[in-house]
Amino acid sequence: MSTPQKFYITTPIYYVNDRPHIGHLYSTTIADIVARYHRLRGDDVFFLTGTDEHAAKVADAAAERGITPLEWADQNAKAFQDTFARLGITNNDFIRTSQDRHKEKVLQYIRGLIESQDVYVGQYEGWYDTGQEEYVPENKANEYEFKSPINGKPLVRKAEKNDFFRLSKYQDKLLALLQGQEVDGRRFDVQPEARKNEVIARIKEGLNDVPISRTGSRGWGIPIPNDPDQTIYVWIDALFNYLSTVDTDSRRGYWPAQVHLIAKDILWFHAVIWPAMLMALDKPLPALVYAHSFWISEGQKMSKSLGNFIDLEKIDHYVATFSLDALRYFLATAGPMGTTDSDFAEAKFIDVYNSDLANTLGNCFSRISNMTNRYFGGKLPKTPDNDRGLILLQEHGFSLTPMLSDERNAKIKALNIVGHTNEVFASIRAIDQYIEKTQPFKLAKDPANLPEVGTILYNCAEAMRIASILLWPIMPTKIEQLWHRIGCDHYTQALANNGPGDLNAWTQWGQLQPGTPILQGDPLFPRHQVK
Ligand code: ME8
């Protein structure tokens, strides 16, 4: 066997000033789906998420409660960890920026930047967005009417002495990289295309050097060596998490990351400042930064005051009512990948649930298992000619096996999970059409037709098996239940504890053994009745 390919994917590390909400769960679930897909392929995956703790707003929130910043960070980091664990997220590590393993590495990187002559001491004055922990350029502050475009709170005028990183020096290299050129043996991409073009346009306006330290952080943050007044600017500290976590003897091979998955709000840091710092440190660049758009809720921007926040309580309501996998499916297929925001609305959720999960996937599997039980005593019948079975199904639009591997990998690589899922569902609909056309339920009335009915049912079960494998990364729990009912527990066993799958071998046609018991059981996705 060849050595598995390394695949490293990250989510943003989330601020611990508050508890997780649907936006955090969304990025982490998409990354989880991609990580699981790569494990299914047999890749050596490292999937990282975590928390960003040294923000001033964390210290503020702690002060309001009369506890230390670390105590507040501990509580919320635990809320993120528990939520992700409970919601089936398979991250390989959880980095907290307050951990020593991170802080030690950051100091090492800062020393590296100082040695590279790309850091100097300067004076900074400007408009600061405390919610986002970033300075807003003068022209933008004006445009935003001196309020945060994210949370509407007033921008704050700040002046301080800081250490600066010579970002301006990297302008030409960054432009060339984003325009698809190789620079000093490196490549780097930002997606979606429209977002990349926005970044390119902004770089062309000219890059200013950026502060990498802050004064007055009241002891919360990583102190700058030999300058106790200053701490490392929380954004610089945070970006380094991607590197610090894998900068150990056993993990170094994972760098550079294949994907940093983020949302559009934090693209500038990831598309410009991060690659420039990595070049200054002479490190390889991540292959792709993908910035998705935002969830809004019931047609409006999510906000606490409007009461339309999809918070942990609402998330739990969806999980309890529809199942965790249904929530994952909705996030994956109705979410804001690409450049448009998506509306999280209950009516839409129910619609997607009933039409795709209850009526298509669940119903198709029920038909197959019911007929197998009715006509063949619950044992998978024999088919005289496997290849002919596949051809028959393909004539009805089943298209999974021919495009497995390359085309599918290209889709996942481009994070086109919607396209991937649409194809799998088109193939499940093709199984349904094949049943409609061949009418095994009518044929079975004459015992002379049973061999033909057997062929049809075998083909359907086999097609469903292949489709189910491709859906596992999105709906692992339900698909493992389905596998149990078709005698495929060995997939579940292989994939347990983040173990590797063998996508290519598993998706070859004709592997279900005739005679295998096909279990009926309750519907995988019971239809949801709107009260
Ligand atoms: O920005 N829709 O942390 P953060 C979709 N600590 N995704 C959303 C969302 C929404 N409405 N709201 C938030 C930070 N997100 C920094 C990051 S990384 C080195 C440091 C998701 O807690 C999305 O991924 O504000 C967004 O980029 C991230 O949460 C911001 O999380």
Q: Which value, in Å, is the CA radius of gyration?
A: 26 Å
Q: How many structural units, i.e. domains?
A: 2
Helix count, DSSP H or I runs of 4 or more residues: 22
Terminal Cα span:
55 Å
Corresponding CATH superfamily of the largest domain: HUPs
The strands making up the biggest β-sheet line up spatially as: 3-2-1-12-13-7
Number of E strands:
15
Instruction: Assign the CATH class of the largest domain.
Output: Alpha Beta
Bound molecules: ligand ME8
**Oligomeric category:** single chain
Portion in helices: 40-55%
Q: Based on Cα principal axes, name the global outline.
A: elongated
Point out poorly predicted stretches. none
Mean pLDDT over the full residue set: 94
CATH topology of the largest domain: Rossmann fold
Main sheet attributes: strand count, strand direction, barrel closure: 6 strands, parallel
User: Beta-sheet strand percentage?
Assistant: 5-15%
Structural class: alpha/beta
CATH architecture type of the largest domain = 3-Layer(aba) Sandwich
Structural notes for this entry:
By secondary structure, the chain is α/β, with parallel strands linked by helices. It folds into two domains: about 290 residues, 3-Layer(aba) Sandwich (Rossmann fold), CATH 3.40.50; about 160 residues, Orthogonal Bundle (Isoleucyl-tRNA Synthetase, Domain 1). The protein contains 22 helices and 15 strands. The strands form four sheets. The protein has a six-stranded parallel β-sheet, with helices on both faces. A four-stranded antiparallel β-sheet has the order 5-4-6-8. It has a three-stranded antiparallel β-sheet with strand order 9-11-10. A hairpin with a 2-residue loop joins strand 10 and strand 11. The longest helix has about 30 residues. It is elongated and about 90 Å long.
